[in-house]
Write a structure and sequence with these properties.
3-stranded antiparallel beta sheet; disordered N terminus; 280 residues; mainly alpha
Length: 280
């Protein structure tokens, strides 16, 4: 938050100095350097110190500028407003998280869009014209920018930097008359984890004829019928057996074609067959 306030304050100073003798001041923050120029600063920091710190003199040399030039100061202030660099101490700079992302080829598309929307003026324009068409003429666009809080003295430069930044951030991919948020695929870390492999089905469910128990593709009546069978060695009274068999006959008559006539079941005493003996 302190970095954002400092960036806005520095942008206000630039606004005041550029407006010169006029007393009119901008009331909304915007950069004087386009997004692409500030990315050059981020790339210079990353290429020389990675995520470490550097000072004015180092950064100026790396970007072939004078540390006291107004162009260099404008570039620094703009990079901070876009959210690419921070100043943990006076005259010291390091990459912000967004700056680290913007120099990463796998993240730069999303980071550019987020950096563009970090600018209060650009966010205000995007929100106002979301899904609509921007003013077609430069003069009309400048009137809109002034209405949002930009000084009339610098409206032309503010518009030009806005248009260049929108182009560099990918918001003009579908035409320069509308701002469209770029699309980007979810990164691997953000993607939903794959579903766990299915657990092995319990053996008792297989024996009862559940899904995967040998009844795939059969009518639910058939599956339900065989699920009613008791476990082997369980006590199953004759009346219950007769009821099950009669139910099976009724289901077969309902589901299958054949000669007419139903099947009638009745109980009769019979000698129990001896169980087969198995050698160990």
């Amino acid at each position: 938050m302190a970095g954002e306030n400092s960036a806005s304050a520095e942008a206000t100073k630039l606004n005041t100095s550029e407006e010169g003798a006029t007393k009119q001041r901008s009331t909304i923050a915007f950069p004087y350097a386009p997004l692409g120029d500030t990315i050059e600063l981020a790339e210079a920091i990353h290429g020389n110190v990675g995520l470490g710190e550097c000072d004015d003199d180092q950064l100026a040399v790396w970007t072939k500028q004078s540390p006291k030039s107004s162009g260099f100061r404008v570039q620094i202030a703009s990079a901070r407003l876009f959210g690419l660099i921070t100043s943990p101490a006076g005259g010291k700079y390091r990459l912000a998280d967004l700056g680290s992302a913007i120099v990463d080829p796998n993240q730069t598309r999303e980071a550019r869009a987020n950096a563009f929307l970090n600018v209060p003026l650009y966010r205000a324009i995007f929100d106002k014209y979301r899904g609509g068409v921007l003013p077609g003429q430069a003069a009309a666009m400048e009137r809109e920018i002034v209405a949002l809080g930009v000084s009339d003295k610098v409206k032309d430069r503010a518009r030009q930097v806005f248009e260049r930044s929108a182009e560099q951030a990918g918001f003009f991919a579908h035409g320069r008359n509308r701002l469209v948020m770029p699309g980007f695929a979810a990164r691997q870390a953000d993607a939903a984890p794959p579903p766990p492999p299915p657990a092995d089905e319990p053996q008792d469910e297989k024996k009862k004829g559940g899904n995967g128990g040998g009844f795939d593709g059969h009518d639910p009546l058939i599956i339900g019928l065989f699920q009613k069978l008791p476990e082997p060695e369980a006590d199953w009274p004759v009346a219950a057996r007769l009821k099950w068999l009669q139910t099976a006959a009724n289901i077969f008559d309902l589901l299958y074609k054949g000669d007419g006539g139903g099947i009638s079941m009745s109980a009769a005493r019979a000698e129990r067959s001896p169980r087969p003996q198995h050698d160990d």
